[in-house]
Design a protein that fits this description.
192 residues; alpha+beta; three-stranded antiparallel beta sheet; 5 helices
C-alpha cells in the first residue's frame, strides 16, 4: 500500500527519496527531522524507564522541540532544542587535528525589525541536544548540555547565545558541562 506522500505527490517512495537526496536544502531539512525523531525515541525510553514523568513534542516555529517534566505537575519543565553538528569539514582544530565538533545555535532567518531575533535567547530552552550523526554516521548518538553553560553572544551577552559552540568528540571522555547521556544530565539537573 503506497504511503500517503506517494499518493499526494504522485511519486514513488524511491522517487521521493531521490528528490531529497539530490537537493541540498531538502537533505538538511531531512537531517534535522531524523535527529529529532531519534531524540524522541530516546526521550520515550527515558520516560518508559520512569526517569521523566511525561514529555511533549513540539513542531512550532520559535519553540523548542520537546518539553520534559521530571515529576508530576507543571514544574520543573525542561525545554529541549535539538541540533545537528556542522558538516564533516567543519570542526575546531588545533595543529590541524580535530579537537571538537561544531554546533550552530542560530535560526534560519531574522525578523526585519530585530536583527538579534536570529539568535536564540538564553531563556528559550534549558537543554541543547546535539546529534552527532553527520560526523559519526550514528544518528542515535547525542551530546547534551544545559543552556546556562553555553557561550553568550558577544554583542547581546545578557540575552542571546553565541552562534557556534564546541562539542566534545565522542572518542574522548565526556565530562560536565557536556553529557553523552540525557539521563545523567537530568539527574544532575534534578540535584542542583
Amino acid at each position: 500500500m503506497p504511503h500517503r506522500l506517494e499518493n499526494e505527490y504522485g511519486l514513488s517512495a524511491n522517487e521521493l527519496l531521490d528528490a531529497i537526496d539530490k537537493r541540498f536544502r531538502a537533505k538538511v531539512t531531512l537531517e534535522g527531522a531524523v535527529a529529532e525523531v531519534h531524540l524522541g525515541k530516546h526521550i520515550k525510553k527515558v520516560k518508559e524507564a520512569s526517569q521523566i514523568h511525561r514529555y511533549e513534542v513540539h513542531d512550532r516555529d520559535g519553540y523548542p522541540d520537546y518539553t520534559l517534566w521530571i515529576s508530576e505537575g507543571e514544574a520543573p519543565a525542561y525545554r529541549v532544542e535539538c541540533k545537528n553538528v556542522r558538516d564533516s569539514d567543519e570542526a575546531y582544530r588545533e595543529g590541524g587535528k580535530i579537537v571538537a565538533y561544531k554546533v550552530e545555535t542560530q535560526k534560519t532567518r531574522a525578523s526585519k525589525a530585530d536583527a538579534s531575533s536570529r539568535f536564540y535567547g538564553v531563556d528559550q530552552f534549558e537543554i541543547l541536544a546535539v546529534c552527532l550523526g553527520k560526523k559519526t554516521h550514528d544518528w542515535t548518538q547525542f551530546m547534551y548540555i544545559q543552556t546556562k553553560n553555553l557561550k553568550r553572544h558577544d554583542k547581546y551577552r545578557k540575552k542571546k547565545l553565541a552562534v557556534m559552540h564546541p562539542v566534545p568528540l565522542p572518542t574522548e571522555p565526556t565530562k560536565p558541562p557536556w553529557y553523552n547521556s540525557l539521563e545523567a544530565l537530568l539527574k544532575d539537573m534534578k540535584n542542583e
